[in-house]
Every structure is written in C-alpha cells, then in structure tokens.
Amino acid sequence: MGLALAAVAGWVLGRTPADTLAPAVTRFTDTFPTAQGWQQEPGSVRQDMELEGLAVSPDGRVIVYATGRGLYVRSLSDFEARLIPGTETAYGTSYPAFSPDGRSIVYFEGDAAIGGVVQTVAVTGGTPRELKRMDFIPYGISWGSAGILFARGFGKEPKGVVQLTPTDGQE
Predict the structure, then answer these.
(1) CB-side exposure of 115: number of CA atoms within 13 Å?
(2) Which string of DSSP letters, residue by residue, matches 120-131?
(3) Strand 71-75 to 82-83 pairing
C-alpha cells in the first residue's frame, strides 16, 4: 500500500500542469498565390487586390485572410489555405475577425464605390449571414465579448465606433 501511494504521489508531483507549459512557437512563411486574388488581374472589378486583413484564431492554430476573391482559411498544421465556401465574391472581402469561440468569422464584403455588408460565416463555410448593409468600408472589425466593433470614418452615417450584436446585427 505504501509503495502504491508513493508511486501515485511521484506521478502527480512529477506532472507539469498544462497551464504552466510554455506556449508552442510556430514559425512559417507563406506565399499568397495570384489565384487567390492577391495580385491585380486584368478585367477584375477590384482595383486594389492587396492584403485586406488577416486574423488568427483565439487558440492560435488557424489563420484566415481576406482577398479580392473571398476568405481563405489555413490551419497551421496544413500546407495550403482553402477558400471558405460561401465567401466567393467579385467585390472582395476585408477585415476578417474570429468569434470568441473560434467557430465563426465576421468580415466585410464590398468596396468603396458600392458599399457593402458586414456578415458572418462558419469557419467551415456555408451561407454568410448578413448583419449590416452599409454605404462605406469600415476601419477594421473585431469580435469580442462586447460584440462586433468597427469604426465608421466616412459615408452618409455619422463617424464613430459601431457596436453590433452578433446574433442580429443590431446597433
């Protein structure tokens, strides 16, 4: 009995609690292919095919980035990103942000000439859910416990910070 207790005590005391372990460091390089909408292409609607935003999931294991063609997601354990089904667009996407639980993404689809919409989509894809239609491009988007936040810098509506509820897009 004493030997069993000593073995259990040694095992318990010898373990390192997960919260005291140093977080893993991940380093990688990535080349964003022209086919994903990172370069200006002849005849494209968007004239500024450039980085429109990149977000890291709350657990640090997934990245999502916005392009002129849609949102791309990549697990850091994978070699390539994939287009999130349902986010394909001719007008471009920008300012993606993960939900606090990491299962959904909020983003803007549109451009300065026509305005656009703030919407959410599951990381796995699906039909985007429209939250707010706007006549302007927001300045960044974040999604935290207070809801979805972005800045309104121009357009017909007053300037300032806008807060939306993630369930119905109400201000």
Answers:
(1) 12
(2) EEETT----EEE
(3) antiparallel
Distance CA 9, CA 25 (A): 32
Q: List the structure tokens of 161.
A: 């910070």
Q: What is the pTM of this model?
A: 0.75
Tokens for 113?
């000439």
Q: What is the pLDDT of residues 96-151, one digit of tens each?
A: 999 999 999 999 998 777 788 999 999 999 999 999 998 888 888 999 999 999 98
